[in-house]
Amino acid sequence: MPYSRTPATGPAEHQQVIRGFFDAFARGDTDALGRCYHPDISFGDPVFLELEGRDQVVGMWSMLLASVTDLKIAAWDVTADDHSGGASWSADYVLRRNGRQVVNQVSAQFRFEDGLIVRHHDDFDFRHWSTLALGRPTGVLVGWAPALRRRVRDRARHRLDEYLRNGSLISG
C-alpha cells in the first residue's frame, strides 16, 4: 500500500505507516518498505551508525534480506503521535554465510515528515547480537571490544557500499 505525503497526518496514520513498514519487512517487500520512508530518510542502529537517503537505507534492508533465510519479523507496542513514534520488534533469522540462528530484540524510534518516516533509529544489544551472529568466542569479544565492534561496523558499511555499487535496484 503506497503512503502518500500528506501534511495533515496524525497518530493513527503514523501508526499505520509503522505497521506497514513492518508488514512489508516481514514479506521481504523492499519496494513497499521504501514507500514508508521520506526521500530524506536517515537511519541508525548499533551496526550502521548513520545512513542517509532512501537508496542507502532501503539498500541496507535489501542487503540484509538477501543475507538471511527463514526470516520472521514481529512488531508490537506500536505507538505514534503527531511527530514521532516507536515500536518494539524482533527479527528471527538464519545467516546464510554461517548458518547461525539469530533472534534480535529491537527498540525502534521514528520521526515523521509529510506523513512518512524521515528518521528511523533502532537500538539493540550489540553484545547479544554479535554472540549469536558470530558465535563464541568471536562474538563475545566483538561485543565487548570497541576496536572489534568498529571492525564489524566498517565491514558492514563496506558490504553495503559494494551491494549498492553492484547494481541493486532500489525504487520508491
Top keywords for this entry?
172 residues; alpha+beta; Nuclear Transport Factor 2, Chain: A; 6-stranded mixed β-sheet; 6 helices; 6 strands
Q: What do these coordinates show?
A:
With 172 residues, the chain is α+β, with helices and mostly antiparallel strands. The protein has a domain at 11-124: Nuclear Transport Factor 2, Chain: A (Roll), CATH 3.10.450.50. Helix content is 42%, strand content 33%. It is built from six helices and six strands. It has helices spanning 11-27, 30-35, 54-66, 126-134, 138-144, 146-165, and strands at residues 37-44, 51-52, 68-80, 84-95, 101-113, 116-123. It has a six-stranded mixed β-sheet with strand order 2-1-6-5-4-3. Strand 5 (101-113) and strand 6 (116-123) form a beta hairpin.
Portion of residues in beta strands equals 25-35%
Q: What's the shape? A: globular
Mean pLDDT: 90
Termini Cα gap: 12 Å
Give me the secondary-structure category: alpha+beta
CATH class of the domain at 11-124: Alpha Beta
Q: What's the arrangement of strands in the largest beta sheet?
A: 2-1-6-5-4-3
